[in-house]
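Record type: monomer structure entry
Structure origin: computed from sequence
Chain ID: A
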Amino acid sequence: MPHFLEKLLLALKDGPALSTAALDVDQVDPKVALIVKTSGSTGNPKSVLLTSQSLIASARASHQYLSASPGQRWSLLLPTTHIAGINVLVRSIELGTVPVGVDSQAEFSAIVPTQLHRAVHSDRQLLEHLQNCRAVLVGGARLDSELKKRAQDLGINVITTYGMSETSGGVIYDGKALDGVSFQIIDKHIALRGPQIAYGYLEGGFPIKDGWFITSDLGFIQDGALVVEARADDQIISGGENISLSAIESYLQSEYSNPEIVAFAKSDAEWGEKLCIATTSNIALDEIRSKLTNRFGSHTSPKELVRVSDIPYLSLGKPDRRKLSDDHS
């Protein structure tokens, strides 16, 4: 990691741009400090171009919200191939410290919901580490409200974050915009504006409208706070009905206290797309159908249940729905 930190520090100081993945080009705009490849969990991966100004703005806004001070430490529990891990490094640079691991003391940490679930249910070392942090940012995927409450009851100061590679990571903390960030709803989609917004995509086609970055996520504003309903690209249309895969997944994981339940879709001649469930557990399809029908309506009754030995995940802990669909087509 020291070598990577040195490269990142150089990139932030107008040195050569750093990329989290191999690229087909050897030159980018001089303003670009970092190229982050998105996961492509539900679509084609994109190469996000970020400037040093955007990355530093992200770190400073986060520290302002957290009342962080120089000398305090972050723990690095996420891969540095993703913006969430990169952000921990940039924040550490800003505080003049080096990030530590789960076996050391830190004031702050950043994790994904899967890690929080493991801390609450099985990973004692991780639980104790997070309990000793002043604040723990949880993002990258939808956080179940029951899991958040249980973690808080165990003494973890959970802050739910919302953002993406295109916004240099989280820019909304517990529904509130960080300093300098604005949000609104445009055509039902969440739109964001602020100094953290990316320079663009290497491939082009960056969704900017009148200065607003238009996300693929659906949401609404309630009492001044942003509520994220679902990722638009996590939604399917089955028999003419919209179904949110993340909502289905989150509900079932909470009902069964098991993160190894994933909703995915397969193409179908009759339904267009059919809802499928993959799990490592011995759960009956009729039982799942009953629960989902009672909670969301009959259109969410899954057409297929697949039992797997392991759920495939992308590197940041998101389920690889495309692989599930391909493997069980």
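Annotation 1: The chain is about 30% helix and 30% strand.
Annotation 2: Residues 2-229 form a domain with the Rossmann fold fold (CATH 3.40.50.12780).
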